[in-house]
Amino acid sequence: MSIRRRNVIAAAGAALAAAPVLAACGNVDAGSTAAAEADGSTASGTIRLGYFGNVTHAPALVGLESGVFKDTLPSAVTIEETVFNAGPSAIEALFADAIDVSYIGPNPAINGWAQSGGQALHIIGGSTSGGAGLVVDASITTAEDLRGKALATPQLGNTQDVAARYWLKEQGFATDENGGGDVSVTPIDNAEVAAAFDDGTVQAAWAVEPRYSDLLLKHGAVEFLNERELWEGGEFVTTHIIVSKKFLDEQPALVKAFLEGHLAALDFIAEKPEEAQTASNDRIEALTDKRLDDAVIAAAWENLTFTADPIATSLQGSKDHAVEIGLLEEVDLKGIYALDALNQVLADRGDAEVSDGGLG
């Protein structure tokens, strides 16, 4: 297997993450079954892979940096990388047939599914759970203390923004998309939120790793709420893997081969956590010219779970929350998952299958 890297793609379409979308539904067709039945060891061709240079995408970082993908995928397979800074850009690239597979957060995947009428993509596996929550200035000790304060989220309509707005609504606070209301929800790029917290522009942040741990360890923030506390079993999807429907239908063996590589990366993370952290940080530094402090990436690692389980029930919950706060029109997620290939690979390994929560 060989690897080719393409340019980093910035967030060109923030509106895709935030705009209400039309209801959609779709059904997994023969592509999912074909991928399950395919022989991944005979795969050949190119997989155009999208991912973010972020620790929440560690299976991609580790798979590429440590050589796990190279060692696991057949020699006739090439991975062509595209690195994104935001989910909407990855969805736009998939719509434009510029990528085949991508690691991505739940809300962009939901929006991509809805905007395409359930015809553009499927979720084929889980990657990462956890790693987000509310951190605050030390002066904030109760929910009521947030009234009149500014709370940062990474992007209007993204996964953490939806979580923050829904939680605030549950606490009885009004918010709007322009920063008004009882609590001013203020979208700020992850790279800039620490400075905004330091200078008092915001007094709270619904942050995702590694920014979550960075704010706690280096900027005097206090953990107010770890989002795990809000989900059954303490697990919620942070990153999963999507595939274009076209690629799933036309290249089932490549899809299965990639999933075998993904599981190998998860094995590496579980068996060699310190090496996996180093590999992730090496890849992040290569992509961004910045290396995470060892303490920050170690803390982030402890706050994340890397898993092939897509945690489908939390995807449904995220969709319901986005609808309730008015950032998404009602959409039917039935058919969004295509887990046949993943479950076949898991069965071949003697591992338990994962559930699509009735959304397959």
From TrEMBL:
Q: Which UniProt keywords are listed?
A: Cell inner membrane, Cell membrane, Membrane, Signal, Transport
Q: Which Gene3D superfamilies match?
A: Periplasmic binding protein-like II
Transport as a keyword of this entry, yes or no, is yes
Q: Where is the signal peptide?
A: 1-23
Where does this protein chiefly localize?
Answer: membrane
Offer one Pfam family short name for this entry.
Answer: NMT1_2
The reply on keyword Metal-binding is no
Write out the annotated subcellular location: Cell inner membrane; Periplasm
SUPFAM superfamilies in the record: Periplasmic binding protein-like II
The UniProt entry, under InterPro entries, shows: ABC_SsuA_sub-bd (IPR010067), NrtA/CpmA_ABC-bd_dom (IPR044527), TAT_signal (IPR006311)
Homology family? Belongs to the bacterial solute-binding protein SsuA/TauA family. Belongs to the CmpA/NrtA family.
Q: Which PANTHER family match?
A: ALIPHATIC SULFONATES-BINDING PROTEIN-RELATED, TAURINE-BINDING PERIPLASMIC PROTEIN
Full protein name: ABC transporter substrate-binding protein
Please tell me the species this chain comes from: Glycomyces rhizosphaerae
